[in-house]
Specification:
The protein is mostly helical and 481 residues long. The protein folds into three domains: 120 residues, Rossmann fold; 125 residues, Serine Threonine Protein Phosphatase 5, Tetratricopeptide repeat, CATH 1.25.40; 182 residues, DNA Cyclobutane Dipyrimidine Photolyase, subunit A, domain 3. The longest helix is centred in the middle third of the chain and has 26 residues.
Length: 481
C-alpha cells in the first residue's frame, strides 16, 4: 500500500481538515510534510513578520502532532523534487493536499502530479474555486448574483473532528528543524500581543467572537467598521493560514444567527457570512482570470496615467500624509501587521484617488506587511478600492479622509493611540488638526509642519484630478472600441 502523505500548506490545523482526514482514511503510516519551497521562501513578497507567524504556526502544529503520536516532517526544495526523493526513501506515495487557487500553486501542483499520486481535497474557500458558476457555465464577475448562487448551493455539513491519535511515520525519516533566529523572534514578539499563532488560539477567538451575549458578532453589521477593530473578529490571519477552517467560521455564524431573537443580531451573523463569501468570490476571480495579478480587471482603466511620486508614496507608506486617519492606519500596519477592513479601504482609496498612485504599489506594500495577506483577497480589495476591478467601487467614489475619520473614529481615540503627537488635539479637530489656530496648536502641543505634517495634498483638488484621469482613460478606451 502506498504511504499516505498529508502535504501541509495553508491548513495548519488538525480539526476540520479534509486532506488530513482523507490521508488517515487510507490507513497505514502517515507522513505530515511541510515543504519549504525556495520559490516562496526566497521571494521578496513574504515579509519577515508573516514568515515568523507561519514558522511559529508550524512549531505549534508539530507540538499538536507529537501529542497525537505523529510529527511534522520539514523538507526544503522544489516540491516535485522533494516528493521524488521521498519516494526513493519510503516507496510509492499517495499525497493529500488542499487545492490552491493561485497561478503558481496550480502550476506547482501540476508538476508534482506528474511525479506522484496527488489528490487535491478541499481548499481554503468554503466553496472551492470554479464551483459556483452561471447556468451557462461562465464565472460570475459581480458579487451580488454570485452570493445568491453561492447561498443557494451551500451545504455546510458538519466540521470534521480532529484525530485523537495518529499513525507513526515510517522509521528513518529525517527532516530539517523549523527555522528560528533573532530577526524572526523579534518579528514574533512584535505581534504576540495581538496575534498568537496556532489552532487553539484560533478556536478560542472564534468562540469568544460568536459567543451568545458577547455582542461582537451580533453587532458585526455596524461594528466591523470601527477603526479601533473592536467590532472585528480578528480571525483573518488564522483563516489565511488555515489555523481555523472557513467552514468552522461559517458554522459558528449560522449557529449564532439561529440563537439570536433580534433581527439586528441575526444581520450581524449574516454580514459576517457575507465576508466569508467575499473570500470565495475573490478566489474565484483569481482562478478564472489569473491575469488580474498584473493588470486591472476593467480594461477601461489599464491606460490610466498614474503619478510616480515616490516622495508621496513614502509619506503614505510611513504614515506621514498629514491626514490622521490615513497615518494612524499605516502606522498600525507597520507595528502589528494588521488593520481593520475599513482602514484598508481608506488607505487604499487615499493612495489611488488622492495621490493618483498605481494601486499595484499599494498592493505590493500590503503583501509585504500583512499577516493575513492572501493573493486573491488582497488583489480583489485593492482593485475594488481603486475602481479598476470586478464589482469594484465606482471610480468616482473618492473617500474623504476627514469624513471617514469622523464617522468611524468620532472621538479620535484610535488616531491618538497610533499618533501620540496628536494626543492633545481636541476631538473637534482631531481628524483635521491643521484647522487649529496657532494658539490652539500651541495649547495642544502639536505644531503643524513641525510635530505633525501638514496635508501633502488638498483632497478637493485631488478628487478633481483623479476623476479627470479616470475619465481620460475611459474616453481613450471608447475610441479604441
Amino acid at each position: 500500500m502506498p504511504t499516505a502523505v498529508w502535504w501541509v500548506r495553508r491548513d495548519l490545523r488538525l480539526g476540520d481538515n479534509p486532506a488530513l482526514t482523507a490521508a488517515l482514511a487510507q490507513g497505514g503510516p502517515l507522513i505530515a510534510l511541510y515543504v519549504r519551497d525556495p520559490a516562496i521562501v526566497g521571494s521578496a513578497n513574504i515579509g519577515p513578520r508573516r514568515a515568523a507567524f507561519l514558522l511559529d504556526g508550524l512549531r505549534n502544529l508539530d507540538l499538536q502532532l507529537r501529542a497525537c503520536g505523529g510529527a511534522l516532517l520539514l523538507r526544503e526544495g522544489e516540491p516535485a523534487a522533494v516528493f521524488g526523493q521521498l519516494t526513493q526513501e519510503v516507496g510509492p506515495l499517495t499525497v493529500f493536499a488542499q487545492a490552491e487557487p493561485t497561478p503558481y500553486g496550480r502550476q506547482r501542483d501540476a508538476a508534482v502530479a506528474r511525479r506522484i499520486d496527488l489528490r487535491l481535497i478541499g481548499s481554503p474557500s468554503l466553496r472551492g474555486p470554479g464551483v459556483v458558476l452561471k447556468a451557462d457555465g461562465r464565472p460570475y464577475t459581480v458579487f451580488t448574483p454570485y452570493r445568491r448562487a453561492w447561498l443557494a448551493g451551500f451545504q455546510a455539513g458538519e466540521a470534521l473532528p480532529a484525530p485523537d491519535r495518529l499513525p507513526p511515520p515510517p522509521e528513518g525519516l529525517t527532516g530539517l528543524a523549523i527555522p528560528a533566529g533573532p530577526a524572526i523572534e523579534t518579528a514574533v514578539a512584535a505581534t504576540a500581543a495581538v496575534f498568537l499563532p496556532g489552532e487553539a488560539e484560533a478556536l478560542r477567538r472564534l468562540a469568544a467572537f460568536a459567543a451568545p451575549g458577547d455582542g461582537r458578532l451580533a453587532a458585526y453589521a455596524t461594528g466591523r467598521d470601527q477603526l479601533d477593530g473592536a467590532g472585528s473578529s480578528a480571525l483573518s490571519p488564522y483563516l489565511r493560514w488555515g489555523m481555523i477552517s472557513a467552514r468552522q467560521a461559517a458554522l459558528a455564524a449560522r449557529e449564532a444567527a439561529a440563537q439570536q431573537a433580534a433581527a439586528e443580531a441575526r444581520r450581524g451573523a449574516e454580514t459576517w457570512q457575507s465576508e466569508l463569501i467575499w473570500r470565495d468570490f475573490y478566489a474565484d476571480i483569481l482562478w478564472h482570470f489569473p491575469w488580474v495579478i498584473d493588470q486591472s480587471f476593467d480594461p477601461r482603466y489599464r491606460g490610466i496615467r498614474w503619478s510616480d511620486d515616490l516622495e508621496a508614496f513614502e509619506a503614505w507608506r510611513e504614515g506621514r500624509t498629514g491626514y490622521p486617519v490615513v497615518d494612524a492606519a499605516m502606522r498600525q500596519l507597520a507595528a502589528t501587521g494588521w488593520m481593520p477592513n475599513r482602514a484598508r479601504m481608506i488607505t487604499a482609496s487615499f493612495l489611488v484617488k488622492d495621490l493618483l498612485i498605481d494601486w499595484r504599489w499599494g498592493e505590493y506594500h500590503f503583501m509585504r506587511q500583512l499577516l493575513d495577506w492572501d493573493l486573491a483577497s488582497n488583489n480583489g480589495g485593492w482593485q475594488w478600492a481603486a475602481g479598476t476591478g470586478t464589482d469594484a467601487a465606482p471610480y468616482f467614489r473618492v473617500f474623504n479622509p476627514v469624513r471617514q475619520g469622523q464617522a468611524f473614529d468620532p472621538a479620535g481615540a484610535w488616531v491618538r493611540r497610533w499618533l501620540p503627537e496628536l494626543r492633545g488635539v481636541p476631538d473637534k479637530h482631531i481628524h483635521q488638526p491643521w484647522t487649529l489656530s496657532s494658539e490652539g496648536q500651541a495649547t495642544a502641543g502639536c505644531r503643524i509642519g513641525r510635530d505633525y505634517p501638514a496635508p501633502i495634498v488638498d483632497h478637493a483638488w485631488a478628487r478633481e484630478r483623479v476623476l479627470a484621469a479616470f475619465g481620460a482613460a475611459r474616453r481613450v478606451e471608447q475610441v479604441r472600441d
